[in-house]
Design brief:
The protein is an alpha/beta fold. It has 2 domains: 46 residues, no CATH class; 275 residues, 3-Layer(aba) Sandwich (Rossmann fold), CATH 3.40.50. The protein is built from 10 helices and 15 strands. It has an 11-stranded mixed β-sheet with strand order 6-5-8-7-9-10-11-12-15-13-14, with helices on both faces. The chain has a 4-stranded antiparallel β-sheet with strand order 1-4-3-2. Helix 4 runs parallel beside helix 9. This is Lipase member H. It comes from Pseudolycoriella hygida. GO terms for molecular function: lipase activity; serine hydrolase activity. InterPro entries: AB_hydrolase_fold, Lipase, Lipase_N, TAG_lipase.
Length: 340
């Protein structure tokens, strides 16, 4: 499989998605966590390992941040009760996990903004899930194929915290792009309870199928699953696969992104909106539409009560599965426009 890395400057000269079909090839631009675009043949079966081997149970890193250690992480290993007991982890506090996407990872690049938002909001245990050794490959297909393995390890970690005394009702997981799909994989694999909430932040679309819910984010992966869809049908998964599914600005062409040919700006905005929503000052009110066709037609006919995107805590009660919500945002911070 041939991979060509583009900077955004170069990629912006090319329309996306690029669906060049030549024999069995299907080339599309896919973003990594750092804003670089890669031209990937998503039909290729050539998954030859081009990076160091990755074993999730060994290589996924869990970093704990609390108000007592907001910037210096404490490393916690699965089933290490002594390590957890000697940390600032508190079973009485809400616990949040944040998962990065392709080519993300590391202390500074693993959800720092969301981590800080929670810590500023209150007493939270915030874990960043660093699978950088698995995601840090030029081979998108290889990274995608590691999603279930990483999700299994995260599920084991949630079970471990539950054994230690943390109720599943205090566990929330959010993930951006491939990280959103990892969150779903984790929710499917816990054995001691059901994760309370999952938020897919423009969960990755390439190589994930609506017809294969066992291998993508699904509304049954937690008691409440929310999706925030900002680059629908290109880099993000287009369909409403959660309990509540939010399409800011129709899910495409985000204000402030200009001519976002690659989709990277819009794709990243989902995380930005989630960060802002955690601050109670910012309310992202959204109206309920009849379904995805309303979003595609850009004609939302109100069909139920309004709801807010994101926030802390997330909206109480899942509502009806697959419900679709529309909202507009500002082009710069503050993005929220208040209740609807």
């Amino acid at each position: 499989m041939q991979l060509i890395a583009f900077t955004l400057l170069v990629a912006c000269a090319t329309a996306v998605p690029l669906n060049y079909t030549d024999n069995q090839e299907d080339w599309q631009l896919v973003p990594d966590e750092n804003g670089y675009m890669h031209l990937v043949d998503i039909r290729s079966n050539d998954n030859k390992e081009v990076t160091p081997s990755f074993v999730a149970i060994r290589d996924v890193v869990f970093r704990l941040f609390t108000r007592s250690n907001p910037t210096t992480p404490q490393f916690i290993q699965i089933n290490n009760h002594e390590q957890l007991a000697n940390s600032n982890f508190n079973v009485n506090h809400q616990t949040r996990f944040q998962i990065h996407g392709w080519n993300g990872g590391g202390h500074d690049g693993t959800g720092a903004a969301i981590r800080n938002a929670y810590i500023n909001r209150g007493d939270f245990n915030v874990f960043t899930v660093d699978w950088g050794l698995g995601a840090g490959t030029p081979n998108y297909i290889l990274a995608r194929n590691r999603v279930n393995e990483v999700g299994h390890v995260l599920a084991q970690f949630c079970d471990f915290l539950n054994i230690y005394g943390l109720p599943f009702s205090r566990i929330g997981i959010s993930g951006h792009s491939l990280g959103g799909q990892v969150a779903g994989a984790a929710g499917k694999r816990t054995t001691r309870g059901i994760v309370e909430t999952i938020v897919g932040l423009d969960a990755a679309g390439p190589l994930f199928s609506l017809d294969d819910p066992a291998n993508r984010l699904h509304h049954t992966d937690a008691n409440y699953v929310e999706t925030i869809i900002t680059d629908a049908g290109r880099l993000g998964f287009q369909h409403p696969i959660g309990d509540a599914n939010f399409y800011p600005n129709w899910g495409t062409s985000q204000p402030g992104c200009g001519i976002d040919l690659t989709g990277q700006c819009g794709h990243n905005l989902a995380s930005t909106l989630m960060v802002e929503s955690i601050n109670p000052v910012h309310i992202f009110g959204a109206i309920r539409c009849r379904g995805l066709d309303d979003i595609r037609d850009r004609n939302c006919v109100i069909s139920g009560p309004s709801r807010r995107l994101g926030g802390e805590p997330l909206q109480d009660g899942p509502g009806s599965v697959g419900s679709v919500f529309f909202l507009t945002t500002n082009a710069a911070s503050p993005f929220a426009q208040g209740p609807r």
